Amino acid sequence: MERMQGEGEVDHLEKPSPLTDKERVMIQDSWTKVYQNCDDVGVAILVRLFVNFPSSKQYFSQFKYIEEPEELERSAQLRKHAHRVMNAINTLVESLDNSDKVASVLKLVGKAHALRHKVEPVYFKILSGVILEVLGEEFPEVVTAEVAAAWTKLLATVYCSITAVYEEVGWTKISTSTGLSMGREVSVL
């Protein structure tokens, strides 16, 4: 059984320092190679997420009951979501020199996942680890230790930014009778 520390809570990680020019270039150069295989890499990331952290499937009605990795890989809905995830990462990477654009993208992603999809913020941290793992395995010649460190810094920044959006929209954890957690918006009058 998987266990996630702090599930339902918004982490208060210290935001990493901004990317240096060198880190930005390393991320963009490595991403060029990764994005050439965008669909396959996106599917590999989501399949790894769902196999290693099966509770993450609870947010996807179309494939939450699919157990076999091969069947997940063939799912048209999973492929479609993987493509969206990769396109969002692509927009971030292409916009690393435009902090307003990055903030805008992260705000949209954060709000959608908090308010519409009710995804626990811890899954962004988990997904970050899965992304780093898959990129390192699939592109070892490109994702060196130094490049992986730059990606780690970027994904930590993404996680901090998205959890800040969760806080802005009043994310809280409520338990249901099934024991699953759901988020909801809290209005302040």
Automatic annotation (TrEMBL):
Assigned keywords, A-Z: Heme, Iron, Metal-binding, Oxygen transport, Transport
GO biological process: neural crest cell development; regulation of neural crest cell differentiation; regulation of response to oxidative stress; response to cadmium ion
Coiled-coil segments: none
PROSITE patterns: GLOBIN
Pfam family, one: Globin
Catalytic activity: 2 superoxide + 2 H(+) = H2O2 + O2; Fe(III)-heme b-[protein] + nitric oxide + H2O = Fe(II)-heme b-[protein] + nitrite + 2 H(+); H2O2 + AH2 = A + 2 H2O; Fe(II)-heme b-[protein] + nitric oxide + O2 = Fe(III)-heme b-[protein] + nitrate
Domain called Globin: residue spans: 18-167
GO molecular function (one): oxygen binding
Enzyme class: oxidoreductase
SUPFAM superfamilies hit by this protein: Globin-like (SSF46458)
EC number: 1.15.1.1
Assigned protein family: Belongs to the globin family.
Protein name as catalogued: superoxide dismutase
Organism: Seriola lalandi dorsalis
